[in-house]
Design brief:
The strands form five sheets. A three-stranded parallel beta sheet has the order 1-2-3, covered by helices on one side. The chain has a three-stranded antiparallel beta sheet with strand order 4-5-8. The chain is mainly α. The protein contains 19 helices and twelve strands.
């Protein structure tokens, strides 16, 4: 597909009624990548006309989520509530041109029309009572009814478009009733605001969830009535949970910011979300720059994507290993502090180099780092009784004596000392390594014991070892 005919302008238009959910984040990502790929403009628009459900906190949650993913807009955010006067001007123009009209049918009367249609097997819809037609006499205007404004939808022909994702889609206009575009109090409705916004903001391409497919013919017809240039539409299928059902909280976190709290990297989340419904050959992992370079809507899938927490963990684990250690330390340090640890009390990059091959998230790493910079808790009586028998204590005494005399305190020297002791005593590694772990860390399981002892430092190791032997 080519985007040369018109400057590329995409938009992400969430409703601030909660958090930025994963499906919305993926839509934002695809729209952002499309604009970046073609050197276009990415617009953020906040659809906040639902006053009962829209909150400042929800707006901030959307902005925070996009900030975390680094999906920063080129323009916006724009707020629909600040554009009310513009919507009213367009509606007034449509009323004057006859492409919209006042309808005085009450909600109860409209529901009765729908019931009558259902009774004869027809599609439930508004019956056009107040629709102006040549030679038609409209009912008397009731004095006590505030009217809605309806769009005068074409009744013949079809509305069709070549969807960027799904291919050709058509709707018979006879299936579309006259949409309410303004409520009795004059506030415009969702489908109308979207149209005016896309028109005014010169949106060239709309990428959104396929739950909007049924809205598209209505929006196209309104745009045509306004004489506006149509954007190209692309509707991406929803994200399903691991069980094949619609993704929801029962499958785990569905808020983007929740994944930040859980210790996932934004670059890993971008990588994973991109692969949910888009592909570039068999490439599973790629940089943000590669994603922008490769992005093509023709490679968006027509099938629903399935959320796979294990795959996300795999992507995140690989991303952790590729980070510069100083950068990784900067990201992990606040999480260590939240756990009561002191990241400055150790060589944090060296600790992370030891731990990250066995970790999947920043939270895993922060927890592991407490071994080196968190509060020390000696082994309890049960663990001591299990692991520190007479033979083990003898090995520990010998290790302590020789460790006090080491010229250098590093992993290589400690590893050589441990191997020499194993040979001298004729025992296998666990006979010394486990007692050392218990005595020095209070734990039975740690990474490589020589590496742990080296990172803890001579003074800490010998002090804890001597205390264990003196107990």
């Amino acid at each position: 597909m080519t985007a040369a005919k018109r400057p590329v302008r995409t938009r992400f238009a969430p409703s601030p009624t909660g958090y930025l959910h994963l499906g919305g984040a993926r839509t934002a990502l695809f729209s952002w990548a499309f604009a970046r790929h073609y050197g276009g403009t990415f617009v953020l628009r906040i659809e906040d006309t639902d006053l009962e459900r829209s909150t400042p906190q929800a707006v901030q949650a959307i902005l925070d989520g996009m900030q975390w993913l680094d999906l920063l807009p080129d323009e916006g955010p724009f707020y629909q509530m600040q554009r009310m006067e513009r919507y009213r001007q367009v509606i007034a123009g449509m009323l004057a041109q006859g492409t919209a009209y006042h309808c005085y049918s009450t909600p109860a009367e409209v529901e009765a029309m729908r019931e009558r249609a259902r009774a004869i097997g027809a599609k439930p819809r508004y019956d056009g009572t107040w629709r102006p037609e040549p030679g038609k006499t409209l009912p008397p205007i009731p004095a006590d009814v505030a009217p809605v404004v309806r769009f005068r939808c074409p009744q013949d022909g079809v509305t069709s478009w070549d969807d960027l994702v799904k291919g050709p889609i058509s709707f018979d206009n006879s299936e579309l009733d006259d949409l309410v575009i303004a409520r009795p109090d004059g506030t415009p409705t969702y489908n109308f605001c979207v149209v005016v916004d896309d028109w005014d903001m010169q949106i060239s391409h709309v990428i959104r969830g396929d739950d909007h497919v049924n809205n598209t013919p209505r929006q196209i017809n309104i745009l045509r009535a306004l004489g506006a240039e149509l954007p190209q539409y692309g509707h991406v299928p929803m994200i399903l949970g691991p069980d094949g059902e619609k993704l929801s909280k029962r499958h785990g976190a569905v808020s983007v910011i929740e994944y930040d709290r859980l210790g996932y990297l934004p670059e890993a989340m971008v990588n994973y979300l991109a692969r949910l419904g888009w592909s570039h050959g068999n490439d599973e992992r790629f940089t943000r720059q590669q994603f922008v370079e490769w992005f093509d809507p023709r490679h968006l899938s027509r099938s629903a994507a399935q959320w796979d927490p294990k795959k996300l963990n795999w992507v995140n684990a690989h991303a952790l290993r590729e980070l510069d250690l100083a950068d990784l330390a900067r990201r992990v340090a606040p999480r260590i502090q939240q756990r009561g640890g002191q990241p400055d009390a150790t060589d944090l990059p060296a600790v992370l180099a030891l731990l990250r091959d066995r970790s999947e998230t920043l939270e895993d790493l922060a927890e592991g780092c407490l071994l080196f910079c968190g509060p020390y808790t000696p082994a309890d009586d049960a663990l001591r009784a299990e692991t520190l028998d007479t033979a083990a204590l003898a090995l520990l005494r010998d290790f302590s004596i020789q460790a006090h005399g080491l010229a250098t305190w590093d992993e290589a020297a400690l590893d050589a000392l441990i191997k020499a002791l194993l040979k001298a005593h004729g025992v296998k590694m666990p006979k010394l390594a486990i007692p050392l772990r218990v005595a020095v860390t209070g734990r039975k399981h740690t990474p490589s014991i020589a590496a742990v002892l080296a990172l803890l430092g001579r003074d800490t190791v010998l002090q804890r070892l001597d205390a264990t032997l003196a107990a």
